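sanity check this record:
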Amino acid sequence: MKYNYYFMVSVLILFSCKGRQTKTAPIKDSIYNTVERPSKTMSCFEYNKNKDTILLQIANKEDSILGQLNYSIYQKDKNIGTVRGVMVGTTMYLDYTFNAEGTQSVRQVAFKLKGGYLVEGYGDMMMKNGYSYFKDTATLHFNDSLQLKEIECPQNN
């Protein structure tokens, strides 16, 4: 009887621990390696300094990252658009589709996760069929002075 009691307690502990495991979502692309990342409904990052604001809202959707990216740079056109891409190691490569001055544009953007914040990558760009993309992602420069800190996501009303 004593063994049945210990067996039942062990089974209950095993099943209760299994329910608390962090789910992971594989992120992959045909060009890049698969990377396991903790699954989270939505993550938001913001840079807000000297009248400049950048807001990135992203979520994992199967093997992609989807979301919205807003640039509001002082005395420049405001850009609001959507992003779709992949995570490779600690770097997100996203296609940013936005409207500026009445024209829809698509350009590649990159953000690297560093110590709990994101920094945007910059590098030489190429253009093909209306799509701006990085000439070589291996040579991107990430500017630590412009840090997007993780924030609580704004509520959409």
Remarks:
- Residues 81 and 108 are 12 Å apart (CA to CA).
- Confidence is low (pLDDT under 50) at residues 1-39.
- Residues 26-151 form one domain.
- The radius of gyration is 21 Å.
